[in-house]
Prior knowledge:
- Helix content is 42%, strand content 20%.
- The protein is of the alpha/beta class.
- It has 2 domains: 4-127, Response regulator (Rossmann fold, 3-Layer(aba) Sandwich), CATH 3.40.50; 135-274 and 307-317, Rossmann fold.
- Helix 3 (40-52) packs parallel to helix 11 and helix 8 runs parallel beside helix 9 (225-237).
- Bound molecules: beta-D-fucofuranose.
- Beta-D-fucofuranose is lined by residues 38-39, 41-42, 116-117, 168, 170, 198, 224, 253-254, 274.
Amino acid sequence: MLCLSSLFVSGCSLFYSSREEKYDDRLVVVGFSQVGSESDWRLANTASMVGALREENGYRLLFDNAKQKQENQYLAIRNFIQQDVDYIVLAPISETGWESVLREAKTAGIPVIVVDRQVSVEDESLYQSWVGSDFYQEGRMAVSWMEETFPENTKTLRILHLQGTEGATAQIMRSRALEEAVSRHENWSIEASLKGEFTEAKGYEVVRDFLKSSTGFDVLYSENDNMTFGAMRALEEAGISFGENGDVKIISFDAVKKALELCLEGKINLCVECNPLHGPRVDRLIKAYEAGDSPQKFSYVEEICFTCDTITQDMVDSREY
Ligand code: GYE
């Protein structure tokens, strides 16, 4: 039995003995390791990547959904190396832990493009380039809004902080901007930092549990829209009002269409944009490498904020994701 199955495996690799047999050589073969499908942002990101790296645009895409587990991303990357892809695109779940697997890709001569969150590696030659958002700047925009909305003479500002996946750049930087602001403002305090893993279900659960013993708070600083949706449900169940005319003001990151709709309704006070449409950006990077150009290593995407008193129906309607 053992013999048979190992024969089968080697049979497979024999069958795929040359790259030419495996892939149409007019196509650029890309292995994309995606974090998961934890949020609306992530789904829009996947759709954008799959849309841009499609066959009519010159690509053969191997897609892997890591279901929010870094070990799955290691497996996917090793598999892409074995499959002899031309490029690996990595949307890393967290910043650390990439050294060995990226070195394996480098040794195999496969360039890696990192998207969305960053990787923290000592040897930056382990990846070719990165494209994504300035998550610290996003956090700073949220803080500026709080500073304008709650002037210095506000007695106290109690903040409930809902954090995304620990160790992800989006979490680290959005949290950093808030924590720095709290240390600058004597009257601001973080009531609790709850771990919501960027999902609606977890956002709901941790806020619901927190409310059982809470003595109240003024602002919810939620590091993504899906956790916000979950938190809003928990607040509703607890009979706590929120939004434009409510007791709790809500700040939410991503600004997906559903969040913008809630902002227009006055349920979310501030939506900080995080753009997930990286597919065409990655396509441009690959085309540049294929043409022998050397695009810049880091590209940041421009982003804005929406507030419930200035958002319009047109802004909601024109949202692509
Ligand atoms: O904010 C969140 C997603 O890394 C920017 O991950 C991304 C974040 C985004 O799950 O919704």
